[in-house]
Amino acid sequence: MSARRRSAHGGIRAGAVPAAEPEVDGDVVTVDYRFSILAVRRFVDKLSDEQEEVVRSMGFEGVLHLSRYSKLDRHFSAWLCNQLAVATAPASASVPARVPISLADGAGAEVPVTARDVHEVLGVPNSDRQVGRIGRALAEKERDADAVRRALCLDPGEALTLQAAEAIVARRNKDAPSPTGPMTQAERDAFAVAFLLLLVEHFFAPGSVSRRGKVNEEVFHALANPSEVHLYDWAEYALEEFRRCAGRVREQVTSKSSKIALSGCLLFLEIFYLDRLDFGEASCGVQRGVLPRVAAYDYKSLYQLIEMERQPEWPEGGLKLFGKIKVPIK
């Protein structure tokens, strides 16, 4: 894959996140985000065979491989988000979600990041319909919200919360009492909607920390008809959160903020980046050609490769530095 070079942005040399200087009272840089593999595993690890079949029918089979992972390296995630570059949207752009985004390696070489990449790494739908459309009329939003509530079989006045979604997913999981028969269509629909609400919030496109604990109403129109969720471009939607994140992180790093706030599906970013570096014989057991790519890695191999990519320097009170492997992203 061809790559192009970019200069340091905002005074930051390519391939490094400058250390934020500690405050006078001794505070150091902290990295905060809502992305949580462990939160997703709380319900994914307990899915019944029937529920897993529903997940596959929705086009989200890659999520079933998350049992291979646990926590991420916060500093590596911050470094990657600082390496993102978002093109300036043309004034005539009617669909801002399609603005190109790229990721630079330690040598400053950039490679485009596309929805197809998200599909190949995470194993999620990359279809035609747009998720998260903006500028929709209030009446349309209300209809979508009503449709989601009906799909979840919520009682009148019952709050649509993440806790309610968790309860719906748990009804037919491995820990639930033995069912009297297969899931009804209504149960499959309720599970599909609840599962995606949880997945979006904890893993797929978690927003900034200010949205913690809230259901993402932005995706309601894509859930209004549970049988059609696979027809939406969930891969592109994941990229949109990175577009929001990139500028914010770069500003925080440039201003030497003591707190870096990340958002988006950080596991995708780590696998996508590591997949494009040449580690020679040190593959750490990662197999090429396996799709989705999330199935080729695990917690151990991810951390081994990240450690190989880490720079030996670590400024006191600052972020770890990465970009040790000085080769263009392939």
From TrEMBL:
Protein name from the UniProt record: Uncharacterized protein
Native source species: Digitaria exilis
